Amino acid sequence: MTDTTRKSADDLRSMRWFGPDDLRSFGHRSRMMQLGYSEEEFRGRPVIGILNTWSEINSCHGHFRERAQDVKRGVLQAGGIAVEMPSLSVDESFTKPTSMLYRNMLAMETEEMIRSHPFDGVVLMGGCDKTTPGLVMGAISAGVPCIYLPAGPMLRGHYAGRILGSGSDAWKYWDERRAGNISDPEWLGIQGGIARSVGTCMTMGTASTMTAITDALGLTLPGASSIPAPDAGHQRMSANCGRRIVDMVWEDLTPDRILTDSAFRNAAIVAMATGCSTNAVVHLIAMARRAGVNLTLDDLDALGRVTPLIANVRPSGKNYLMEDFFYAGGLRALMKQIEGRLDTSCVTVTGDTVGENLAGAVVFNDDVIRPLSNPVYHEGSLAVLRGNLCPDGAVIKPAACDPKYHAHEGPALVFDSYLEMKKAVDDEYLDITPDHVMVLRNVGPQGGPGMPEWGMLPIPKALIKQGHRDMLRISDARMSGTSYGACVLHVAPESHVGGPLALLRTEDIIRMDLDARQLNMLVDDEELDLRRAAWAPPEPRFQRGWGWMFSRHVGQADTGCDFDFLERGFGLAAGEPDIY
Ligand code: FES
To answer: Kindly report the CA angle at 194 between 273 and 235, in degrees rounded to 5?
Structure first.
């Protein structure tokens, strides 16, 4: 337990709104009474904002209205007052062109709603991909005590005796359907069985990766990220979040005391050991920079080289899903396996250290959570490439692709838009070989804009029919955490701003050497200079609104795609609002 000095009621942030004997505070108190509260219910008690990303179209957060009631129960039991507030519900399935376009919007909303309201502490309810980094980035910048409540993974998918994994099996069976191997009734059965409860995708996709990272950072109750959404334990965890945040307020346990350099290093090591989504790179760097921690692509690559992947969970693992991971002991058990590599002195939302939180954690199935002596893959989840195609970096997931592509040389087939690429891959007579390298550009942070998850380019029908299921693909886009294959992503700088990817031409030879972390086009410098001189920037995609603002301020993938005007400062950086 860390040393704590408890606040007094007069020290509460909310007392700026409710305490003074002036006209404005009279107004605040009278409006609370209009809401049905007596003065003794809100004055001098921690006011807890519950930022709830529920919506009727966010299937992953379908249980959040009920869980908010559990949080309120906990807050009240601990002597606080709970205020539920709707937050932008950025769902992964329906938000187009890509949910990533709205991560920073959620971060801005979170920061501003916390700052502008009399919240002494907040519970952040998220889980579906971008909701986790969006809520956490905003809460870091707001700086009041916060605890993250992860939605939890959905149950395993199921159809005709087969276990189905979110995303991963959609891609896999879609290829089989394109090859003519799946009937209409079978396809309908898979459609109905692949997502059969509330909760987030139950592979180690972006949602499970980001909630695991948040858990490892110390922002959730220990192991909370692994509890399946429909489990009664998830309700109990929610109520515990409510109880704990009230004490965090009295202890003034703000995010800056939790989110240290070591906490981010712990989170990166855990991410590598879990077989994390490639999206982890972008979000982890963005969250770290909000917290004033300079985490870089090279740091992540260095940790990836020495951290074995031990969670046998798809898509990097072979057999299991998040429900199995929970039964095997969950994230606490995984962290226990790698405890010697973590800084166990880091403080967490419990007020205890990582080491104290891991006491008693046990692995119940060592095929799901492997010992270090028997990893799924000898290195971590991600590798960072550099070279004349990606001077500021690119990312690949070595364990999720056929090892024969770890060293590869072949001619480029370049597409400037998704539609152009789609037309080609659907052409059964496309002139392409398995050695070709498919390239999609103009789909980066500014080019997309929003860096859509288009980086797992479909294998052309012409190759599918020959039995091929993988090939080397390169883009400045991202890919879903549930995706797999030899996909090089996040090429930086992106082509839209004139990165070298913009200079590549079809039939140029590309060489990738994963061991050497190199990705190059074999084109000499004089020729590249000529092409650069002839290059003209593409027309902007948006002339107004959010897309316009996003395109002007978003950073490149290697720096986390945050807005340039939001990166600075940590914790109430913009100061408390004036109350006059
Ligand atoms: Fe919500 Fe995958 S669609 S977590």
So the answer is: 70
